[in-house]
Design a protein that fits this description.
Layout (H helix, E strand, L loop, with lengths): L31 E3 L10 H11 L12 E10 L2 E2 L2 E2 L7 H4 L5 E9 L14 E9 L2 E8 L12 H8 L10 H9 L5 H7 L14 E2 L4 E4 L5 E10 L8 H8 L5 H11 L5 E10 L25 E10 L4 H6 L12 E3 L3 H17 L72 E3 L7 H12 L2 H15 L4 H14 L1 H11 L3 H5 L36
Antiparallel strand pairs: 1-14, 2-5, 2-12, 3-4, 5-6, 6-7, 8-10, 9-10, 9-13, 10-11, 11-12
Keywords: Heme, Hydrogen peroxide, Iron, Metal-binding, Oxidoreductase, Peroxidase
Function: Decomposes hydrogen peroxide into water and oxygen; serves to protect cells from the toxic effects of hydrogen peroxide.
Organism: Pseudoduganella albidiflava
Length: 545
């Protein structure tokens, strides 16, 4: 019996989406933020309820990135970013001080499959790095590709649900993946990467890593620059075709774990160069994309990769469960000198990742050796108890009286606030509170088309075959819409996918644009207020800066 959905129930009489409290959801596409590019707000109840429930959908296996392997090593900074002192851009000592080997633990993973899924799966690879610096932990959590499928965290549970197995058939159904993607053009760029050979790295040692999100570097003067972080493998990059992956999987479902483990055991330590891309801290209207949009790459001819340091992995875990499986990462774990941008995926991940760890491993997961900071940065908090508490005295080296003071402020001892930096980073923020989607959508199609044209012939052939095989398993409306999207990315891209999928190209081209979304290759002139335009006179002049 076919597992494809029928068209029944696809009309306008479908039930209304609500929160778990029964409140109708009027916008499921965007977080509430201060203006289009401003920060998300803590009162995003709809998102918080959605993401915290999503974080608890599986126990105890990770909901995503369940299949993984890890290794220990060290990071060394060059003290420069390109040809300039690193201190010009950041006051983070881990990035400015030379001659220091900062301990690291790296966990590589696949995203969608379960703990025992094959490592030959076509899937982005997680690339999570925990740097145990003298100023505390810094977690740089990313993947092997430099972009993601979506640009707003409120869509993350929907995306993963669409990519995970069907709740009825318990299989990953292609139509579910493409149904989501066909209604989310921002994902076209990532789909073009994942369905090409880049979707199956040959090994963890031979793949790139990227922080994906936009962060900020802040220097001693309180001046910030937007930054993207990248790991470039000195072993080179190698990927697999679907046929090569199938041949490996027939004999070994854990080939990448084996490859990394054996390389380290024989002393062939994998190494990556740590690079950054930098951009001034403003909205860059001259670009066709928003630099905070994680579905877009920063063109390297305009924003070159600048070397900053190197990472070497030289020791395997002694116990996979204690170290690899209980390792816990969070995008909110930053050191002074590295800061958040208003990237909406980053802001949502910052809540979700650590919330997941508190649920999956436990509220005291940071007391586990694999996650605890190094002794020079031993945590001293006023937090107490909870499940599996290990530290008797979080306050650390205070006297006997200090252990009575588990609050702040106090005139009787206990902990005190750290001194503020001479010049703090401050960001000017103004705007109407509402739900916004980015108004710069040209590159939803342009960058995917550019990637198509940049691929080698064999990579394009593999991409077309993979897409064609998938789309032949999809209901015709989904396949037609996907061809429409690919044709708008590049005419040859769309034509070849249509031929491979057995789709009439002219029927696909005749489709209207998606409802509620701008036509491809056109800008919306002003941000759209999806909660309604402010009333006349509601706009206020900004106070003097």
């Amino acid at each position: 019996m076919s597992s494809k959905p029928t068209s029944e129930g696809a009309g306008s009489e479908r039930p209304i989406l609500t929160t778990r409290q029964g409140h109708p959801v009027r916008d499921n596409q965007a977080l509430r933020s201060v203006g289009e590019r401003g920060p998300a707000t803590l009162e995003n109840y709809q998102f918080i309820e959605k993401i915290t429930h999503f974080d608890r959908e599986r126990i105890p296996e990770r909901v995503v990135h369940a299949r993984g392997t890890g290794a220990h090593g060290y990071f060394e900074a060059y003290g420069k970013i390109g040809d300039e002192p690193a201190a010009r851009y950041t006051r983070a000592r881990v990035l400015t001080e030379t001659g220091v080997r900062t301990p690291v633990f790296v966990r590589f993973s696949t995203v969608i499959g379960g703990k025992d899924s094959p490592e030959t799966a076509r899937d982005p690879r997680g690339f999570a790095v925990k740097l145990k610096t003298v100023d505390g932990n810094w977690d740089l959590v990313g993947n092997n590709l430099k972009i993601f499928f979506i640009r707003d965290a409120v869509k993350f549970p929907d995306m993963i649900h669409a990519f995970k197995p069907d709740p009825v058939t318990n299989r990953q159904e292609p139509w579910r993946f493409y149904d989501f993607v066909s209604n989310s053009p921002e994902a076209l760029h990532m789909v073009t990467w994942v369905k090409s050979p880049w979707g199956i790295p040959a090994s963890y040692r031979e793949m790139e890593g990227s922080g994906v999100n936009t962060y900020k570097l802040v220097n001693d003067e309180g001046i910030a620059h937007l930054v993207k972080f990248h790991w470039v493998p000195k072993q080179g990059v190698r990927n697999l075709t679907a046929a090569q992956a199938a041949e490996i999987q027939a004999n070994d479902t854990g080939h990448a774990t084996k490859d990394l483990y054996e390389a380290i055991e024989r002393g062939d330590f994998p190494e990556w160069e740590f690079c950054v891309q930098l951009m001034s801290d403003d909205d860059h209207p001259e670009l066709d994309f928003d630099p905070l949009d994680d579905t877009k790459r920063w063109p390297e001819d305009q924003f070159p990769l600048l070397p900053l340091g190197r990472m070497v992995l030289d020791r395997n875990p002694d116990n996979v469960f204690a170290e690899t499986e209980q390792s816990a990462f969070g995008t909110g774990v930053l050191v002074d000198g590295v800061d958040f941008s208003d990237d909406k995926m980053l802001q949502g991940r910052t809540l979700s990742y650590s919330d997941t760890q508190r649920y999956r491993v436990g509220p005291n997961y940071l007391q586990l050796p694999i996650n605890a900071p190094q002794e020079a940065a031993r945590p001293r908090t006023n937090q107490r108890d909870a499940q599996m508490a290990y530290y008797v005295d979080d306050a650390g080296n205070g006297g006997k009286l200090d252990r009575h003071i588990n609050y702040e402020p106090s005139s009787m001892g206990g902990l005190q606030e750290a001194p503020r930096p001479a010049r703090e980073y401050r960001q000017w923020v103004e705007g109407h509170l509402g739900r916004y989607q980015t108004s710069r959508t040209l590159d939803d199609y342009r960058q995917a088309g550019e990637r198509w044209r940049t691929f080698q012939d064999w990579e394009r052939d593999e991409l077309v075959k993979n897409l064609g095989d998938d789309l032949r398993q999809c209901p015709e409306p989904i396949a037609l819409r996907m061809v429409w999207h690919f044709w708008h990315c590049d005419a040859d891209y769309g034509r070849r996918v249509a031929e491979a999928a057995g789709i009439d190209l002219e029927r696909a081209r005749a489709l209207p644009p998606l409802a509620g979304k701008p036509a491809p290759n056109q800008h919306r002139p002003v941000p759209t207020y999806t909660d309604g335009e402010p009333e006349e006179g509601a706009r206020e002049e900004a106070p003097a800066k």
